[in-house]
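User: Modeling request: complex.
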Amino acid sequence: MRTRLDCVWCMGRQALDAARAATSDPRLQQACMDEVLRRSLGCPLDRTPAEHSMTAYRVVRELTGVADPYAEEKRRENEAALALEDEVERLVDAEPDSLRAAVLASLAGNIIDLGTGQTFDIAEEVDRFLHVAPAHDDYAEFAQALSRAGRVLFAGDNAGEIVFDKPLVRRLAPAEVVYAVKGGPIINDATMDDALAVGMDRLARIVTTGCDAVGAPLHVVGPEFLEELAAADLVISKGQGNLETLDEADADVFFLLKAKCPCVARRLGVGLGDTVIARKGNLPPD
Amino acid sequence: MRTRLDCVWCMGRQALDAARAATSDPRLQQACMDEVLRRSLGCPLDRTPAEHSMTAYRVVRELTGVADPYAEEKRRENEAALALEDEVERLVDAEPDSLRAAVLASLAGNIIDLGTGQTFDIAEEVDRFLHVAPAHDDYAEFAQALSRAGRVLFAGDNAGEIVFDKPLVRRLAPAEVVYAVKGGPIINDATMDDALAVGMDRLARIVTTGCDAVGAPLHVVGPEFLEELAAADLVISKGQGNLETLDEADADVFFLLKAKCPCVARRLGVGLGDTVIARKGNLPPD
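Assistant: Request completed. Predicted assembly structure:
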């Protein structure tokens, strides 16, 4: 997905949010936002938004000296989600089509996202999401593709949210599952620490993108991730960051996400706040 | 109201919206947004947001050569509101306390605002607003202050919206009413053209702020407006722009608005989207 003009001012918004998470000094907060906006001026629109936001969060880290402004938030999100895990697995297991229910539970987890500044009540949402059809629903194609897949690459999204992916990861067997997290901290995206903290390593082989960007910008990720992408028969992509980047991948990708930004919603042809299960080949061109 | 750090990136958002209204050339749109953001870097936070946005909209006018990007939109809003005027007056007149109903109808008109990028259905909203209590409600104080006022200064807000002020203007008698519009175009704020187009001049004496800012920044407005402010026993202030500026006025101001931005909502101590009837003296300090 190419960068929109809206991404430019939104980088300033995100940088200010991150700076506020990193420091209480308003002068330093302003310096972070200003520096990010300065670097965004005249920015080339042929790159992905993920590449610009990577720069933005790096600026905040450099100017504040705080390596991971959302570390504590991620820890809390993992804990909150782990406390709900048994209940979510039970809800999924009780559904007639538990694979579909697991996809919907994974989608429900996607409302946990610090980057958009929204609040949420996850317990309420899970139950609701299990019974609301996504605005774009390629689930039937997903189930068919999965039945033929030997290896699945699951591109995870945020801390906390990854717990809600576990019922789905369990139901991808007999396919081999490789679960990808970020190579370094960005917003509240899950890293290796989070994968281990929630026990994802007991269900799948964990790899990282090799970079500290949201999603997996193909010009930025490490060689290991590119190899996994090439070797996967099917890719499950969670969240906006992965959509922004993996819609350019030469792979059979199914995007699971809630459209939290107007540009992403328009990209998908759905309304703001809608959820989708969308196969890459069925999306309109960017 | 002092400028918040959030106002900086939001200026970029507003500039992009205005540039898109003025031109379909994406390079020119980006140039407008970039130039506004460039001028916002390191911006002093002791001025009002209205002073910064005045600069932003001037940049768009200068770079695109379009003097009034929202001219057609304002014309359409006036027409749409005029088509509803008789119905609104009838609804107000049917209420037991028609002064209060007129205040609520004026508030209902405040949801018409291009600057926030929201959509609306005004016919639905008017009826709803007449029966929903504002989150902060100083109406009783307003009615008492009005009963003692010889002269009222009514600081209007947007085109279209000003039609919904007419039932209230009619009910301010026996006080003399001076209705203020903007001295030049900014977003969809009403100017003298709009006041005349909706016939406000038949109900009140029309003055302008003498400047092309939202609201009435006291260091920027013309001497005529300052004289009217000093001569008024009571000021009715519509919308966010007027709140951003008239909360610094030495006058008995009643703010009628819907909090459309998180910073304004926090300033007022209400939730985003809430409406208020708030006397200046009852507001928390900025």
